[in-house]
Amino acid sequence: MATSRKSVKAPHRASASEPVADRAALQATLGRIQSLLPTMGAVAQRIGEFVIRHPGDVVHMSVSEVAEKTDSSEGSVVGFCKLLGATGFQQLKISLAQEIVHPVQYIHEDLSEDDNEDVVVSKIFHSNIQTLKDTESILDVAALKQAVKLIRRAKRVEIYGIGSSAVIADDAHYRMLRIGLHATAVTDSHVQAISASLTGPDVAVLTISHSGSTHETVLATRLAKEAGARTVCITNFGKSPIQEYADVMLHTMARETRFRTEAMTSRLAQLAIIDTLIACLALSDYETSVATLRSTFDVLSTKRY
């Protein structure tokens, strides 16, 4: 992506007192715009496409100039910034300046039919690396803490996933068992609906859905919410129907491309969040978790020669 060669001011460095959510809002801006474009209105799409094409120019422009260039209003530009999680146009410019001064090392690239094996290896590995970096940058630590509290307070945990997310649900189930949590993974859509309808206030539901719009998982999450369960959802950044029924959202930042729908990038990001969540859950009850891990390790050792 071409950028302006004009000089850029030194990037803003967040102070220790600056809220975590605000610091996160200053990162992965271009990735956020790209993810949200399909869900934006016509005016916001024009603004987003302009920012993606000319990030270096936007850093040196006023809100009025961007509005003029995109045939929109100043209010629309400010609204676009807030849609991304920024407090306003100035914070968007600071974020873009950071990305220009410290450009991402790898760029998500789609595969072409004439790519040889060397190119395929490079593109896929670099895309996976960038997905993990982007997901780390937008992961809301406050939401993570809340998810840990909800799950720890629950008597049992129901984990829902369909399709490619089913294997992530199974992994989360296994990892929770290893630290002594009463958890169940439900990956059949019919059983999900029944299970969700039978939950209650003493149940925590963890739903995993890259799109956040898969009918089966959205329905199961809604039924669980209506039954009084507390709901935690792991889904890709952007607007999606599942957000309406989630008490806590944990976002990934994974971009699927023409040749890589349901790509490993989305599952790697989900697994990274699961790994982080399990670690935080274990640390929240350290002694019990260590004892349970030791006990389950001894059990598993009988399975090895």
From TrEMBL:
Entry keyword set: DNA-binding, Glycolysis, Transcription, Transcription regulation
Basic residues composition-biased segments: 1-12
Annotated region described as Disordered, given as residue ranges: 1-20
Top-rank taxon, per record: Bacteria
Record domain HTH rpiR-type: where: 27-103
Organism per entry: Cupriavidus pampae
Keyword Transcription regulation: yes
Annotated SIS domain residues: 147-287
Signal peptide: none
Name the UniProt record assigns to this protein: HTH-type transcriptional regulator YbbH
A Pfam family annotated for this UniProt entry: HTH_6
UniProt-listed SUPFAM superfamilies: Homeodomain-like, SIS domain
Gene it is expressed from: ybbH
